[in-house]
Design a protein that fits this description.
The protein is an alpha/beta fold. 28% of the residues lie in helices and 30% in strands. It contains 4 helices and 7 strands. The chain has a 7-stranded mixed beta sheet with strand order 3-2-1-4-5-7-6, with helices on both faces. It is globular.
């Protein structure tokens, strides 16, 4: 992150019905956020909340499968939801797809470790390293559930 610049545009691969991270970034930091989600019901709930909070200019929703999404825009950060991470076999295809089709400066991947894996799947670092350059891995040692992996594409 030594070449850090302000974050202006964020892509969320899965945002869910309550995309709080996108709300926070849009409201507090004026980031533009695009959310990809395959769940029609989640998209509908999120649309209502976005309208309620007056964030239509800052947050866009796309009903699409993250494993098939082909990004045409450039993002400062691509945020990959923990629930998108499934079994190791699918992780390989997800990371391969991201490398080929998502144009982002950084990738923030939610994962888990130790007993927290009961709630969320753990990202296979070995799989991720095949396609992305891992910059940092942060495991919480308190009440926070998710670990965070920060990565970039290989040059």
């Amino acid at each position: 992150l030594s070449s850090f610049r302000p974050i202006k545009k964020v892509l969320f691969l899965w945002g869910g019905a309550l995309p709080l991270s996108a709300f926070f970034l849009a409201q507090e930091y004026w980031c533009k956020c695009d959310i990809i989600d395959v769940d029609t019901e989640a998209i509908e709930h999120a649309k209502k909340l976005i309208k309620l909070f007056g964030l239509e200019e800052k947050i866009r929703l796309f009903h699409e499968d993250a494993y098939k999404y082909v990004g045409t825009e450039e993002y400062d950060v691509c945020y990959i939801a923990a629930l998108l991470i499934e079994e190791k076999k699918k992780q390989n295809s997800l990371f391969q797809h991201i490398k080929k089709h998502i144009n982002a400066s950084y990738f923030l991947i939610r994962s888990s470790h130790t007993t927290r894996e009961l709630l969320y799947k753990k990202v296979s670092i070995k799989s991720a390293k095949k396609y992305l350059h891992i910059q940092y891995i942060i495991h919480p040692k308190n009440h926070i559930i998710n670990s965070i992996i920060i990565a970039k594409k290989y040059d």
